[in-house]
Amino acid sequence: MSTAEPRSAQSAKPSIPGALAEVTDLGVSNVSAIAEAVNPLIADAFALYVKTKNFHWHLSGPRFRDYHLLFDEQAGSILDSTDVLAERVRKIGGTTLRSIDHIHRLQRIPDDNEDNVPASEMIRRLLNDNRQIAERQRAAIELCDSRGDSPTGNILQDILDQTERRIWFLFELTQDDR
Asked: Torsion-angle region of residue 19: left (phi > 0), alpha (psi -120 to 50) or beta?
């Protein structure tokens, strides 16, 4: 006895190759716009995570221990945001990042491959990158709100709060340079 469905039942099932079936009442165009706003933020988070870990690993100088621990803490916070955002995009029916190449194509935070970056310059670069991300997070929050997706906007607000905390800590470190 075969457990396969009759051919007529199989052909009646909808098929949406490469995309999720509509799982939300937001509508396809809203989901697409939200995914297009959030996916570059995820790519930027991965790029900033790697840059922060790079600086964590290659740091030297009299404040090594303090900066080393701070960069590690900040990198962890950044990495944690990627899963929350990617799962949210999937939850509303969108698709998200698939590879390092995909990250590279969407990221707006520049990579940093320079040797021997002084600690003060590391802080300056991370501060600038976090400020850029905060700007983009605010824009994505506005877009989510305008498209009726307050849950994604709320998630982004929490992540923005973490970004602003990183900015505050990095900014305060620059005050030594006055």
From this structure: beta
Tell me the pLDDT tens digit for each residue of 133-167.
Answer: 999 999 999 999 999 999 999 999 999 999 999 99
**Class of CATH domain 27-177:** mainly alpha
DSSP 141-155: HHHHHHTT-HHHHHH
Instruction: Name the one residue in this structure whose structure tokens are 């690993």.
Output: 57
Q: For Cα atoms 91, 96, 101, give the angle at the middle one, nearest 5 degrees.
A: 165
Distant-in-sequence, close-in-space partners of 24: CB < 8 Å, separation ≥ 6: 31, 91, 92, 93
3-state secondary structure 154-165: HHHHHHHHHHHH
CA distance 49 to 17: 32
State the Cα–Cα distance between residues 54 and 48, nearest whole angstrom. Answer: 10
Burial class (CB in 10 A: 0-12, 13-18, 19+), 128: middle
The values of phi and psi at residue 130, to 5°, are -65, -35
